[in-house]
C-alpha cells in the first residue's frame, strides 16, 4: 500500500488508477472527499470554538473591570441596612441620632488604618463621613415615621453586642473595598461606571427604592470628581 503525505495526492492517484484499468470506480474518490470534508469541518468548528471562547473571555474581563464598584455598593448597602436596628435601639433608649464622640473616634481609626493599608487618608475620611451621614439620613427618616405613625414594637437588637460588631465587620470590609476602587476613582468616566454598577446591583437584588437617596449620599465621593451619574 502506498503512503501519501497529503489526501489530495491519494485522490489523484486513485483517479488515475481507476481510469487506467478501463473503468471508473468512484467509491474511493467519494470516500476521500468525504474525509477531506470532515477534516475541513472539524477545523472550522475548532476555529469557531476558539473565537467563541475568546469572545467570552473578553466579555468576562470587561464585566470584571467594575467589580470594585460592585463590592463597595454591596457593602455600603449592607451598612445602610444596619441603620434600622441602630435607630430602633436609640428610639427605645431615648438617645439622639447624632453621636459626635463616636463618629470622631471612628474617623480617627479610619485615618490610621487607611495609612497602614496604603489608602489615601483624605479619601477614606471623606468616604466614611458619607457613610455616617447616609446612615443618619435613614435613622432620621425612621424616627419621623415612628413619630407620625406607630413606634416599633419589641425589644431592639443589643447595640453594643449585636449591631456594632456587625458595623465593625462591614467597616473592615469597606476599607479593603476602598483599596480596590481607588485606582478607578480618578477616571473621567468613573461617575457613569459607578451609576451603571448601581443600576445592575438594584436589578439583581431586592433593593428598597426608599434607600436611593441614602445610597447616593453614601457613594457620593467614591469618584474623585464626585457624584454617581444618573442613578435610577
Tell me about this structure:
The protein has 232 residues and is mainly alpha-helical. It has two domains: 7-60, no CATH class; 65-218, Up-down Bundle (Chorismate Mutase Domain, subunit A). Helix content is 72%, strand content 0%. It contains nine helices and no strands. Helix 3 runs antiparallel to helix 7 (159-181) and helix 4 (83-92) packs across helix 6 (121-148). It is globular, with a radius of gyration of 32 Å. The N and C termini lie far apart (75 Å). Mean pLDDT is 79; it is low at 6-37 and 39-64.
Name some characteristics of this structure.
Chorismate Mutase Domain, subunit A; mainly alpha; 9 helices; 232 residues; chorismate mutase; 2 domains
Number of domains: 2
Approximate strand percentage: under 5%
Order of helices and strands: HHHHHHHHH
Proportion of residues in helical segments: over 70%
Low-confidence stretches: 6-37, 39-64
- How many β-strand runs? 0
Here the CATH topology of the largest domain equals: Chorismate Mutase Domain, subunit A
The biggest sheet amounts to: none
Structural class determined from secondary elements: mainly alpha
Mean pLDDT: 79
Round the Cα radius of gyration to an integer and report it. 32 Å
CATH architecture type of the largest domain: Up-down Bundle
Q: Which outline best applies?
A: globular
Number of helices: 9
Amino acid at each position: 500500500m502506498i503512503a501519501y503525505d497529503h489526501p489530495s495526492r491519494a485522490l489523484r492517484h486513485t483517479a488515475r488508477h481507476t481510469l487506467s484499468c478501463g473503468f471508473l470506480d468512484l467509491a474511493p474518490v467519494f470516500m476521500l472527499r468525504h474525509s477531506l470534508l470532515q477534516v475541513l469541518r472539524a477545523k472550522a468548528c475548532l476555529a469557531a470554538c476558539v473565537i467563541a471562547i475568546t469572545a467570552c473571555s473578553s466579555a468576562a474581563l470587561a464585566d470584571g473591570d467594575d467589580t470594585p464598584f460592585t463590592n463597595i455598593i454591596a457593602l455600603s448597602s449592607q451598612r445602610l441596612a444596619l441603620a434600622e436596628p441602630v435607630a430602633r435601639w436609640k428610639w427605645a433608649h431615648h438617645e439622639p441620632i447624632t453621636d459626635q464622640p463616636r463618629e470622631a473616634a471612628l474617623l480617627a481609626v479610619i485615618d490610621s488604618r487607611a495609612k497602614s493599608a496604603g489608602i489615601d487618608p483624605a479619601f477614606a475620611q471623606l468616604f466614611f463621613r458619607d457613610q455616617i451621614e447616609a446612615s443618619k439620613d435613614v435613622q432620621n427618616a425612621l424616627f419621623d415615621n415612628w413619630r407620625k405613625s406607630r413606634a416599633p414594637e419589641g425589644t431592639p437588637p443589643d447595640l453594643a453586642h449585636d449591631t456594632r460588631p456587625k458595623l465593625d465587620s462591614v467597616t473592615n470590609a469597606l476599607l479593603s473595598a476602598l483599596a480596590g476602587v481607588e485606582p478607578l476613582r480618578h477616571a473621567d468616566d468613573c461617575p457613569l461606571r459607578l451609576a451603571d454598577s448601581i443600576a445592575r446591583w438594584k436589578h439583581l437584588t431586592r433593593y428598597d427604592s426608599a434607600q436611593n437617596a441614602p445610597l447616593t449620599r453614601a457613594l457620593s465621593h467614591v469618584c474623585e470628581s464626585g457624584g454617581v451619574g444618573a442613578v435610577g
